[in-house]
UniProtKB/TrEMBL annotation:
Listed GO MF terms: oxidoreductase activity
PANTHER family referenced in this protein's UniProt entry, alphabetically: SHORT-CHAIN DEHYDROGENASE REDUCTASE (PTHR42820), SHORT-CHAIN DEHYDROGENASE REDUCTASE 3B (PTHR42820:SF16)
Pfam families assigned to the protein according to its UniProt record, in alphabetical order: adh_short_C2
The protein's name: Putative 3beta-hydroxysteroid dehydrgenase
Family the entry assigns: Belongs to the short-chain dehydrogenases/reductases (SDR) family.
Length: 257
């Protein structure tokens, strides 16, 4: 990939303090973007901003389940940079694997609040800012193979990601008249802190499982692969792509083991 695909673009990346989000911050700024990192992990988020250069990235504390904080994060971005071109809605949480017979509905509600409602709030306020400024923007949401295939994730996570995919499709229909694109990027198992800490499992075990169970052999899925797909959807290289869910799963969701 040559050239800077996001030169001059202003980007919000939620969940940008670690994992796929942090890798996306690094890649997007390498491609010329100025990024506002949104997260609740203050120390990590500030560290990522410093590592890429505070002229390129700024950290902003925001709980995506709080709509007022979401609205303020978007306002902060527009006031600082004058516009908003791209939203990468990546923040999320995960619940443990349990039987549906033992489903903890309070935990279920928290997962849906972060993964689905939080994304909806950011799409709402980011799109408002894009419409107000006349920006033909791009909104990208991190979904999952769990948005298409059951059994790959816990119940709350799977339900939230299925809902998120429906929201992407619905939002793309409503925002197309403004020239705003809405898409998803759907990874298979990546050894991110979310996955490793959520399931109390070592990164090498996650990678071994993905390699063993995935369809495409010889490649270990990394956060960088997902960030590169998100970059494509964020950039003008995908100028006529909307309402899609780009799978980064080595064919897993099509050719299941």
């Amino acid at each position: 990939m040559s050239g800077k695909r996001l030169d001059g673009k202003i980007v919000i990346i939620t969940g940008g303090a670690s994992g796929i989000g942090a890798e996306s911050v690094r890649l997007f700024t390498d491609h010329g973007a100025r990024v506002v990192i949104v997260d609740i992990q203050d120390e990590l988020g500030q560290s990522v901003a410093v590592s890429v250069g505070e002229d390129k990235a700024t950290y902003y504390h925001c709980d995506v389940t709080n709509e007022t904080e979401v609205e303020n994060a978007v306002k902060f971005t527009v006031e600082k940079h004058g516009k908003l071109d791209v939203l990468l809605s990546n923040a999320g949480v995960i619940d443990p694997f349990t039987s549906i017979l033992d489903l903890d509905l309070d935990r279920f509600d928290r997962v849906v609040a972060a993964n689905l409602r939080g994304a909806a709030a950011f799409i709402k306020h980011a799109a408002r800012a894009m419409v107000e400024k006349g920006t033909r923007g791009s909104i990208v949401c991190t979904t999952s193979v769990a948005a298409e295939v059951a059994g790959t994730g816990p119940h709350g996570y799977t339900a939230s990601k299925h809902g998120l995919l429906g929201l992407i499709k619905s939002a793309s229909g409503g925002l197309g008249k403004y020239g705003i694109r809405v898409n998803g990027v759907a990874p298979y198992g990546v050894a991110t802190p979310l996955v490793c800490n959520g399931f109390n499992i070592e990164p090498n075990v996650v990678e071994a499982n993905t390699l063993a169970n995935g369809n495409l052999k010889g490649i270990i899925l990394k956060a960088r692969h997902v960030a590169e797909a998100a970059l494509f959807l964020a950039s003008d290289a995908s100028a006529y792509v909307s309402g899609q869910n780009l799978a980064v799963d080595g064919g897993y969701s099509v050719v299941k083991p």
